[in-house]
Amino acid sequence: MDDVTGSPQITDNPEASRFEITSGGHLAELRYRRRADRLVLLHTEVPAELEGHGIGGSLVAAAVDQAIRENLTVVPVCPFAHSWLQRHPDVAARVTIDWGSD
Fold first, then answer.
1. CA 73, CA 46: separation in Å to the nearest integer?
2. Averaged pLDDT of the chain
């Protein structure tokens, strides 16, 4: 849902295990799995109609914010999330990240 400024709002949909944004009738999502003290980022999907607006990065940033609030380690299995976090070290530095086998 868009807020009064017209910016799409990210919501955590724990029943579907995803962060999501709906804009213009299109759904963008970052699927995740919670494992003990870990937030595993599995897959980012942004429809072509929403590409180029930073929505994928906003979804990853929302996951980082959630991990901070819940004291979770982020595990970016999703290639997009992994590369986005590497390109945004300011955001990555805010949370513990398990980079896997880089």
1. 24
2. 91
Distance between CA atoms of 9 and 102, rounded to whole angstroms? 32
Long-range contacts formed by 23-26: CB under 8 A, 24+ apart = 23/50, 23/55, 24/49, 24/50, 26/50
Contact 7, 21 (CB under 8 A): no
Measured between alpha carbons, how far is residue 87 from residues 21, 27, 65, 98 in Å? 22, 24, 17, 16
Q: Residue 79 is encoded by which pair of tokens?
A: 């290639």
Residue-wise pLDDT for 22-60, tens only, equals 988 999 999 999 999 999 999 999 999 999 999 999 999
pTM: 0.90
How confident is the model over 58-75, as a mean pLDDT?
Answer: 97
